[in-house]
Amino acid sequence: MNKLVISVLGPDRPGIIAAVTRILFEQDCNIENVSQTILQSEFSGIFIISLPERLQPEALEAHLREGLTPLKQQISVKRLEPQRPVFNGQHAEPFVITTMGPDQKGLVAKITEIIALHGVNVTNLQAVFKGGDNPTDNVMIYEVDVPSEVDQQRLRNDLTARARDLGLQISIQHRQIFEVLNRI
């Protein structure tokens, strides 16, 4: 089966996920992965699906547009490229980097610059900015994969220095430790 990535963006309202999944079910598609969130008042959903052999991507896109236009959603459909090993097949460890501090332009760019310089891949990012100077009101959580060849102490030192320059508190933990400490 061919795999597709479907992106759905538009104003949030009840029934968007129901409409997308109904259309996919009616077209005999299998949903393999979903990531959906609401950012302020905007719906954002990404679906990875298996497409049955008899259905062309263009036909599925037409069905989605027909069904989602009344909900004012924008649709993007593209083929999922065959998977390539991350980091050329080298082992990577999952970490969580959390920053808290006053809101200012460029925070995400300045932190991800350090992450990228070390060859670390950001796999998930959540940023919640409420504005103002209260450090607990502005939080960024980066889930990252750190390749085994990366000097973790140097990465930690560089991130800590950048956070200090930005007036941020920073925490860098292996994902397993983060999950244990943050379990409800």
Per-chain topology:
Elements: E1 2-11, H1 16-26, E2 30-39, E3 42-51, H2 57-68, E4 74-79, E5 92-100, H3 107-117, E6 121-129, E7 138-147, H4 152-166, E8 169-174, H5 175-181
Helix pairs in contact: 1-2, 3-4
Can you describe what's shown?
With 184 residues, this protein is of the alpha+beta class. The strands form two sheets. It has a four-stranded antiparallel beta sheet, covered by helices on one side. The chain has a four-stranded antiparallel beta sheet with strand order 6-7-5-8. It is 30% helix and 38% strand. It is built from five helices and eight strands. Strand 2 and strand 3 form a beta hairpin. It has two domains: 78 residues, Alpha-Beta Plaits, CATH 3.30.70.260; 94 residues, Alpha-Beta Plaits. The two termini are 39 Å apart. The mean pLDDT is 89.
